[in-house]
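From the pipeline queue, job 12 of 40. The input is one protein chain; the requested action is below.

Action: predict structure.
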Amino acid sequence: MRVSIVGFGVIGKYYLNLIKKKFSFSEIYIVDNIYKKKKVKKKIIFLNFLEFKKENPLINYAIICTPSYLHYDYASFFLNRKVPTLIEKPFVLRIDHAKKLIKLAKKKKTDCLVCFQNRFNKSISFIRKKIISNKLKKVFFVDCFLSWRRTRKYYQSSWRGKYKTDGGVLVNQAIHLLDIVSYLFGPIKNLNGLQLFNKKKLDAEDTISLNFYCQKNILISFKATTRANQDYGIKLDIFAEKKRFLIEGISLNELFFFVDRKKYKFKKFSETFKDALGSGHIKVLKVFFSKKAAKDDLKIQKNFYTLKLIHSVYRYLNKKKIFTVEEKQSILGV
């Protein structure tokens, strides 16, 4: 198995370590323009994209970990060569780029997946099964909150925190929480909300507060900020007529239930994570490197809705128009 990891920042390094520890491979190509000359260390080859194109090695799988606005270009490159491709979130920024990748993946009969690793958390899987089996009945309210800290240094990068190249807290940090909400409770409608900006740090929003309905008129309160004084984590508090479940932790990794107003940890469906990356990436890779049916849920065509939703939220907040999920001109991307 030959794998290419494009972009060797924090997440690119994380993927490399996972593959080295958990999978058999013949070669891993680390493609990043920080490398002026090709170098080889054991079975790992480091080179820039121009050298990679000239060498044109046979690749079985590609993983895109570059800044968000570059995802489309690199994914297109590999899909055109019929290389199955996994893209970090958000899989692209622009609506038209999403449509082109979906069309290209279909034309080339090649898988293109987006990494929504929190879906594989034990806590999320438990609640998902409860909903599908109709054992969690009459959910009427869900309270969601992401509270992380991102410093000015974090946003000093030339691309972070800008609508054209990255987006704000909604599309960057909170996209996993938004995905989980629609993954569990269905499409979103009737939205209203507000946002805050810290122009000293970034161009896009760093705090957002939304209220909306999902299917069956479940009311969702959705809040996210990167302005907190530390990483407090994420919360998904689910209220049903006769039950209440709380999923929280640094990455929705701990499940709690309530009896007579007392809170109890559901240990069987809770996990311990060191950081917000969690443990789902290894499960995503197992699906990506296999022929499992679970792969379908991660295909970009199945996750286009999340991107359309984000654009529609931004369009509503920035232009104060009536909220609808549409495929109009993109707010994000260049």
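Job complete. The mean pLDDT is 93.
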